[in-house]
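Q: Hi! First time doing this. I have a protein sequence and I read that you can turn it into a structure. Is that right? Here it is:
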Amino acid sequence: MDNSNSRSCSSRLVLCGKSEAENEIARWLKSNNALKLPEATQFSILLHSEIVVDTQQCNNNNNEEEEEGDDWFNVQSYMNSLSTNQFGRFLVWSPRLTSTHDVVSTNFLELPVGAVCVADVQYKGRGRSNNVWESPKGCALFSFTVQMEDGRVVPLLQYVVSLAVTEAIKDICDKNGLPYIDVRIKWPNDLYLNGLKVGGVLCTSTYKSKKFNISAGIGLNVDNEKPTTCLNAVLKELCGDAHQIRREEIISAFFNKFENFYNLFINQGELVLPYCKVISINKVPS
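A: Yes, that's right. Below is the predicted 3D structure, encoded as structure tokens:
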């Protein structure tokens, strides 16, 4: 591992669970060096309980390229806002990562189903048709795992994910008394705001032991106005600086909403899709 402070702060994977049972999984993964790490980069694996002192050391680093500690994903705030039974409860977080999607798909069998990987910055983000790009600071960048048995409905999961994103944003606005930010779905998996793309959804799957192992990835412009616009820029236009949405709010609200939609989807299948279409399809011009 590079001995510089900058490298040690960025090249880390932090593991955290919402419950003691999930934290025990984190301890096992670390002690057994069980995770497959991205490319040839050397990452340090840390438990969330171990990072307080290390974070202070990183904050003392004056390297301009280093991620500021205040801008890092707030793991505790995220966990406190999460109210799910399965999804998002086991977290892998890194300040800088190649791709959250690659981490969860490569480690699908090592991680509990529903685990999520979050990055502050990713430099090999994945999209449809194998597109790769660098995601700027300020995006909500996360991927999580889902396991399904009925292959007929697997392709429909991306619609449920997209719907959960838009409804999570609505819930945050309602909770904080904010004007509704009207993020819309451009079928099948792009997210638009005021006619500009602000995010997207990617779902990939493999089949093993009669189950579909699905990795679902989401990218959403929360606090980065470039290259298009972002949630906080639009919110500022509507109500000033009274409230800025944080990534932790978005991701926890997403999982709270997604788990409800997913359970409905599994129980009723395609009956859920007309609801998805009513609120989203054809709202954004092609």
